[in-house]
Design a protein that fits this description.
alpha/beta; Rossmann fold; FAD/NAD(P)-binding domain; Fumarate Reductase Iron-sulfur Protein, Chain B, domain 2; 28 helices; 29 strands; elongated
Amino acid sequence: MTKIGVYICHCGLNIAGVLDVQRVTEYAKTLPGVVIARHYTYTCSEPGQRMIIEDIKTYGIDRVVIAACSPRIHEETFRKTIAQAGLNPYLLEIVNVREHVSWVHSEEPEKATEKAMELIRMGVARAKLLEPLQTKKVGVEKNVLVIGGGIAGIQAALDTANAGLNVVLVEKSPTIGGKMALLDKTFPTLDCSACILTPKMTEASRHPKIKLISYAEIENISGHIGNYEVTILKKPRYVDEDKCTGCGECSKVCPVEMVNEFELGLGKRKAIFRPFPQAVPNVFTIEKKGTPRCKATCPAKINVQGYVALIAQRKFREAYELIRQHVPFPGVLGRVCFHPCENECERGNVDEPIAICALKRFVADYMMKQSQEKPAPIPRKYTNKVAIIGAGPAGLTVAYELVKAGYPVTVFERMPEPGGMMRYGIPDYRLPKDVLKIEIEYIESLGVEIITNVTFGEDLTLSDLKNKGYQAVFIGCGAWESPKMGIEGEELQGVIPALDLLKNVNSGKKVEIGERVAVIGGGNVAVDAARVALRLGAKQVFMLYRRSRAEMPAFQPEVEQAEKEGVKILFLTSPKRIIGKNGRVVAIECLKMRLTDPDETGRRRPVPIEGSEHIIEVDTVITAIGQILDSRALPKELQITTFGIYVDPNTLQTNIPGVFAGGDAVSGPASVIEAIADGIKAAHYIQKYLRGEKLKAGIEEEMLPLVPISPKIGIKRKERQVMPTLPADERIKGFEEIELGFTEEMAVEEAKRCLACGGCSECLECVKVCEAKAINHKQTPERIKVKVGAIIVATGAELFDATRIPEYAATKSKNIISNLQFERLTNASGPTGGEILCPETGKKPRSIVFIQCVGSRDRRFNEYCCRIGCMVTLKQA
């Protein structure tokens, strides 16, 4: 059973002048486990300590409770006292009845006495749980971690380092200096803040015993006093601190402007920046907020924000070159891409998405108008020959990527001209042949050999390619076959597969077509066939689609264009049979449909309405119900699925080692950009295969996390540029291109609408001008582990967000600013050069009002006084 002694100190009259110490003492004697309780005028004095020592020996006391002043003052004194009596010094409990009781209840003696008794009761209960602790010596790390690079952290680091200890100074910002770096003058001397701060910043950076780690945060601390292991997460600057000279040339060419956090939103800065000229370390930092959603959504991962930012700066050539780094067909994609990127554009949350596709087309057209020398062939680094079957978007992209990497590549194409579906499946009014030709010629000029009029499986086999030394093969032969509808009358004269129609028209062949045409299907090919039929002289063109507009797979802008030109779309209509006379089409019998539950594609399933048969008189029927792979010429050992060639979805390798496939030949009919994406992926894995590496899933270039969607406060609406087009009545007279393209001014204005949501656009202009070769866009976060014996926390304070108090209307006007923003306006290095101007108007204010205690002395936020408001107001006034 524990034996506890309780001692109440009078502390002169500090305690006894308020508490009834006699009553408290008598109460303490009644507590379980207490064998002696006394009160004394000065317990910490020599007589008081001797009294405790004698009681420990006389009563066999094994725990001591002392009710006195703060343990910060005499805890160590009383530990030595009980140790002198032979008691473990840690079997001591201090109850603070001065600061916690008598001083705060000086006018309430009864309340103070009762509170003191309650605290002593809890102290006795706690004392019963104390265990004797043993002191031992352990080695300590003679390194000190200082967290926070403001003036307090800098001074702490300097003092500690000057005392002979090694210091690690960690600051989360790109520079040390903290809030003091924002100030104009100090109070009350009105000395220049920078004149006091910057020499200390420099001293800290040059001190031999201080290791500065900026743009970093503490991730984890483990261990104990004297021996801590700290993990520091250093964020990537994308600039090598050892190489950067701080010249600033990179910032001059950066096309991305962002809010300047150092100026607290009162100014702009570039995506590559230095907070202020005297920053320490005096190096630049690139801010990347994440992967823009436009890039993440693009199947080919084109750097959309990059080329848009360059267009905004009128750097059209640079924008074009940036697109070409990713894809070989800027001009094609600028015309026919279904641009999923625009659906995810952050600008769409303000007004309308950026016209990304039209901007890509603009720079392609701009460069085509410039006189350009053909590039020299890229020198070959490797001897591994690669064969490409099919000169469509997938095959040509594989060739483009491989030739850039230094591989010898040959493309075999069965048609007279390369281009695949781009050349023979897309009409001129959407994609002029000369645009495609120029971009294919560019691929050839790099060293890609294209051999046309070669049919795989007849003129050339897989065995032939192996015998000729080709070590890898890519099959991108497309999906050129039209499936049958399986209805009566398909064999009649006047029934034409849509792909045959488009191929013949694009080959320059004369195509006969009737005056009343029915096009069966609702995809892009069906829409193209309907529009082509009008241009070939049809008086009326009907599209028969068995679902509603909402389920229509065709690209909606193309559907709208078709309707403007006169195509009539009959929704919820399906053909039942084609009616003929003398072997030729004269009508088509149809059924009305209704939609039920969704099928496996996610679209609602159409079912016929009984008795809804009706006849439409037509003399031509164009079938566009899909495309399938013609697998008859493919190697028999090649595995085929319902859609096309089987491939590993991660690597695009077929079941035959070294044979890869992609595009429509694998997926069935898709888009040009999706075929190009397959080509990029296949080229990556073909290179790994040729190097003998294991084909692991995932292209090595990892993207940053998606940019989070943020509130769009304060962004002014700005209308999207409208693409100029030929009038609808002129379009159907021929195959002239419908969309006329942006002018330079339209393109620049449209590009300026970009919100630069990803921060750095990775346009790589900074890389071009950095003579020190300090830019490294591949940098990744670095974890640094350090061992320290002590940690000093000097993280400073955050500015209170006044927008939390609606009555101040802080978001209503730019002229309602914080104290620190006012500091920047008065600062010679601030956004106005020290001249006080209204942020909203740029004019001098007629009067200035200071509102104090915002967020402090307020029960809703902080009940305490902020301590600086009055001082700041006096200084600024």
